[in-house]
Amino acid sequence: MAGEKDGKEMTCRIRASVKGVVQGIGFRPFVYNLAKERNLVGHILNTSSGVNIEAEGRPEEISLFFQEIENNPLPLTMITQIEKTPVPPKQDRDFTIRKSISFSRKSALIPADISVCDKCLEEMTDSENRRYRYPFINCTHCGPRYTIIHDLPYDRPLTSMKVFRMCDDCLREYHDPGNRRFHAQPNACPACGPRLELRDRGGKLLETDDPVAKSIELLKKGHILAVKGLGGVHLAVDAENDRAVLAVRKRKGRDEKPFAVMSLNPSRIQKYAKMNQEEESLLLSAQRPIVILEKKVLNSLSSHIAPKNRSFGVMLPYTPLHYLFLQNDFLALVMTSGNLSEEPIIFRNDNAFERLGPVADYFLIHNRDIYCGCDDSIFRTIGSHPRIIRRARGFVPLPLILSRRFPSILACGAELKNTVCLTFEKNAFLSQHIGDLKNLESYRAFSFTIDHLKKLLDIEPEIVAHDLHPDYLSTRYALDEAKGEKAGIQHHHAHIVSCLTEHGLDGPVIGFAFDGAGYGTDGKTWGGEALLVNNHEFTRLAHLSYLPMPGGDAVIKEPWRMAISYLFQTFGEKLWDLKLPLLQTVEKKKIETIIQMIEKGVNCPETSSLGRLFDALSALLGVCLRVSYEGQAAIELEMIADGEEKGSYSFEWKKGKDSYVISPLPVISGVVDDILKGSSPPVISQKFHLTLIRLFSELGGQLKKEVGLDRIVLSGGVFQNATFLTGLEEALDQQGFSVFSQSKVPTNDGGISLGQAAIAASMANS
């Protein structure tokens, strides 16, 4: 520390490098004003690795200055590191914000897109304000970030706002340290910023002085409107208009998958859904995710929004445009992702007209480019804990902070609910939800997301991790296109390590990995696995017995096939003597064909999947014989369960050559007995759930004795089932386990890439 006395006050100067989310969220003006208050001189500037500060003044003021920076009140700041170095005083005359600089290594953390703030909303609704009803109002506390960024450092010329030259009024705000828009990169107003256009499905411009008012009029008439927002296009209709909701379903080819809805405020939501304090807090958070809420029995929303489901997916408005829509008398608007079935969200104007022309009647678009599409995030509260189901807008690309340093890794994820993960030092950057990699559009989005994140984060992976399944498009990309050392990771191993990584833990642990499908080390389809996991190694301790999947992946779309497989394994040819509704509903010839396929082993790959057992039960009870979206059969089975029922079915497991093998056949036998006795599907569903809870808690206790571990990890898509997860967590806790499940990272395949990255890092260090 340098200084001088001789009649003058001692001064010192500190140079600090601040890393984390410190760009695009008002951090520089905050530090600038803080320095002014403490009579410090020096400067602050953005760099491609974060923010650099030099502050000079009295030592006690310098100390308090940095304490206030570390404890700053800015809600979106995330400081991960501050490195401070004493340097000689320079006797600057003032504290200034300097022009940003770019280093060869970019490591600044990128802020996520966030909801419009209250102050901007006040201005937008003030008829005397120059931004009155301006749908792109924003400031340093709110608005677009990740979706408009081309490169770092986060300055206007490196965003899609570069084409909009600020007017004199906006420039004055931008350069005024006392203004909320001081160095707000997306700053704009009606005179100089982006504008809305209303067009018909053919792209023809509709002449109107107020595109928003005209759009509201069209929605009230029952039209379908494609609305370009923050991270992509939504398809919007009045949620109380049955005919309009059905029209979206028909045109989009989305028969039964629930639609998300948006309401102005919690008081309107309470008219059609139940909401606890945790759920309301989630809804009101700056990230504004979709939150799964229980329906009210009597409500005025269309019954076609979430058929055969006890819940609605609900969100609050997060853009100024949403508020302009919902400040009218809509109770709610359907706001479903603007895409075709199994494709990623559309975010480019030309692509919207091309792909959504057959779906939407009108298009409300704007001329601010979205550089990277980002769908809405989804949460569900399970066991009083908010659990993220889909991690995207509001959370990406904020990193997960790791417990140790990782090499530079690209993890390519799985096929369904794909995300990718890039790691650098103690940061894991999990991408936004990309979707199912089953078509060209999804694969293009997957490739673009990898390239975009690599560029923004300046990460060139040394290691490329991928699933073992040879036919996944993510695997093909890793093996054929990506550069770096390859690491094949088993699917269920990745599930367990994803949860471990979220909690900052290392193995060994017992892991229950339950899902629909994952490629096993024996080439078969796994999904009901108990594993002993020790970072990059695992041993299979137990699994459901293998059963044929007649038609392979066809069982996913037609769960009745799996029901026949279970019935045939349980009863053989005697199944024909059973007076089951399923056998009367499905054409006899089709059932005979399925049985012949099983007997001859034709196109009948074997599976140990617990997800397929849920599907089979759903079909057996007549709940869902054919699905129109992934997980539908299991979801609807959970939805009908009678929570008052306390019974369960028999089960068994036996020691196999290398692991315990769990037979589901006694469960099937018990379910069939109940059906024949006339028990209701809700009662049977609940008994089935309770059976699985008993089975796996007792199995956990047995494994605990054998391997001597009292930590157990639960991961996989089946654990999105609230009844099963909460019941099993409680039962395992009673067995003396410390139980770990996921909340910050999806327990479904959206979390696979994180697990792949962590295992690859452990392999590299072994």
Task: Please provide a written account of the structure.
- The structure is a single chain.
- The N terminus is likely disordered.
- The chain is α/β, with parallel strands linked by helices.
- Strand 25 and strand 26 form a beta hairpin.
- The strands form 5 sheets. A 10-stranded mixed beta sheet has the order 6-13-7-8-12-9-11-10-14-15, sandwiched between helices.
- It is built from 23 helices and 28 strands.
- Helix 13 crosses helix 23, helix 15 crosses helix 18 and helix 21 runs parallel beside helix 22.
- It folds into 4 domains: 86 residues, Alpha-Beta Plaits; 183 residues, DHBP synthase (Alpha-Beta Complex), CATH 3.90.870.40; 131 residues, Nucleotidyltransferase, domain 5 (2-Layer Sandwich); 198 residues, ATPase, nucleotide binding domain (Nucleotidyltransferase, domain 5).
Q: Helix tally?
A: 23
The CA-CA distance between the termini, in Å, is 43 Å
CATH architecture tag of the largest domain: 2-Layer Sandwich
Q: Strand tally, please?
A: 28
Shape: globular
Class of the largest domain, according to the CATH hierarchy? Alpha Beta
CATH overall fold name of the largest domain:
Nucleotidyltransferase, domain 5
Enumerate the spans where pLDDT stays under 50 for 5 or more consecutive residues.
Answer: 1-7
Number of domains: 4
Radius of gyration: 28 Å
* Structural class by helix and strand composition: alpha/beta
Biggest pleated sheet: 10 strands, mixed
Give the CATH H-level superfamily of the largest domain.
ATPase, nucleotide binding domain
